[in-house]
Amino acid sequence: MVINTRYDVIIIGAGPAGMFAANELSGHGLKILVIDKGRDVEKRHCPMESVQHCMHCAPCNIMCGVGGAGTFSDGTLNLRPDIGGDLLEFTHDQEKAWELVDYVDNIFLQHGATEKVISPKGEDVEQLQRRAASVGAKFINIKQRHIGSDNAPAVIGKFKKKLDENGVDFLLNTDVKDLWIENNVCRGVFLNNGRTIEGSYTLLAPGRIGGKWVNEIVDKHSIDARYAGVDIGVRVEVPGIIMDPVTRINRDPKFHIQTRKYDDFVRTFCTNEHGFVVREEYEGFIATNGHSMHDTVSENTNFAFLVHIELTEPIENTIKYARSVAKLATTIGGGKPVLQRMGDLRRGRRSTEARLVRNPVVNTLKDVTPGDISMAMPHRIVMDIIEGLETLDRIIPGVACDSTLLYAPEVKFYSMKIQVDGNMQSNIRNLFAAGDGAGLSRDIVNASATGILAARGILEISAR
To answer: Is residue 136 part of a domain?
Structure first.
């Protein structure tokens, strides 16, 4: 395929936001180019599956490429407009926000997502909500569709094939160095290989891996944006039998807790029923995440347990703060995630290889360093994690027992939130934004929806 030097629309990022934007734009007679630093979906294979340790692939096959980081996550679609973002902020209409969620869901179904929907109702949900309320927590009931980390690549592959057939060009294994901006108008992009591609409209949708780059672009070109909060915590791993009574009700249960000591917000996120803990490679540090398959299971269930951090003056740069915590944890772990037993964290001692060998819960991620999370994370966050898990233990007995495994760091930080108008256009004319990398979403469904909104904004402006 020959890549042209000029397109009607250039999309930076082939994750959910970028792919759904391209899908919405196709069929309107526009020349569309999607650029991504990663590989095509069928070429994204992590060597850790066979060698059990990170090979430091550049770029990381888990984080980059067609389908984005969500391709190898749990593959759960949270079918609500207020989970993983807030679509009402962009639609200003609750009905339209729900319509967007249904629209995204239908596109996934068209490309092979499972038709099974987890929609908990009745007495089981009421009891779970009651148990949570009795300890001052909240259970968020969500309709979900679980694609699975093993099935998601096939779904994404079919979606990509459709875009290819519709004439969308993909330029992969390619870094965008900078935006071409003149007189407050975006005219295209500069690539790291020295090429320049002109575009009438450009959509910033690089995904979470592009957060640092987006922040640099924001500063360099005076793009209106503000710092958002960050989530810092651990990946928790327990025997699946502990979580089964809850995951049978809701596969990815969301519990919200307000800690007593610091009045901080702590939440569960990305539960992987009988899944696997994995590592993620970022520039300058590592982090953890979880995968859940349809056809391959472990004896354990894992979930993220995150403390929400907001900073005020004189330092508001939450991204820099989160990166510093993650870098310290990476240093303490010698370039690997730190693994600690809950009992050892409570008692203020590090976990050792010997203690882990005797531990009833066997870690699914092997490429780790036994250690002390309190050496890697601020005291307040550690106290929030301990208190929060002990509160959660009163809802789900066994979650905070001594043998529970904690991996650090688990960090969900986002780019500076780009300020956009009703068409998802920034203060730079013809520059639009969508998805996690632009700070406008925090999950697959919301990222996809913001990509659709940006595409519709482009179509509206181009028709004037």
So the answer is: no
Q: Could you give the CA distance from residue 122 to residue 138 in angstroms, rounded to a whole number?
A: 17
d(CA 248, CA 265): 26
Q: What pLDDT score does 144 carry?
A: 86
User: Rounded CA gap, 245 and 121, in Å?
Assistant: 14
Burial category of 257 from C-beta neighbours within 10 Å (exposed 0-12, middle 13-18, buried 19 and up): buried
What gap in Å lies between CA 386 and CA 345, rounded to an integer?
Answer: 8
CB 240 within 8 A of CB 301: yes
Q: Say what percent of the chain tops pLDDT 90.
A: 72
Strands 338-341 and 369-370: parallel
d(CA 203, CA 11) in angstroms, rounded, equals: 5
- Are residues 193 and 205 part of one domain? yes
Would you say residue 132 lies in a domain?
no
CB within 8 A of 440, min separation 6: which ones? 85, 90, 417, 418, 420, 424, 433, 434, 446, 450
HEC letters along 205-219: CCCHHHHHHHHHHHH
CATH of the domain at 192: 3.50.50.60
Where are the extended beta strands (E) located within 273-319?
A: 276-282, 285-291, 300-309
How many residues does the structure list for the chain?
464
Q: Does 424 lie in the same domain as 290?
A: no
What pTM value is reported for the model?
0.80
Residues 6+ apart with CB under 8 A from 367: 48, 52, 53, 54, 279, 336, 337
Decide if pLDDT at 418 tops 90. yes
55 has a pLDDT exceeding 80: no
Longest dimension (CA), the chain: 69
- Spell 31-67 as b/e; 16+ CB within 10 A means b: bbbbbbbbbbbeebebebeeeeebeebebbbbbbbbb
Residues 65 and 163 in one domain: yes
The band of 74, judged by pLDDT with boundaries at 50, 70 and 90, is low
Q: How confident is the model at residue 252 (pLDDT cuts 50, 70, 90)?
A: confident
Residue 302 lies in domain: 229-412
Q: What 3-state class would DSSP assign to 266? A: strand
Counted domains in the chain: 2
Whole-angstrom Cα distance, residue 193 to residue 129?
54
d(CA 352, CA 210): 35
Residue 206 lies inside a defined structural domain of this protein: yes
Let me know whether 351 and 445 are in one domain. no
Q: Looking at the predicted structure, is the pLDDT value of residue 448 above 80?
A: yes
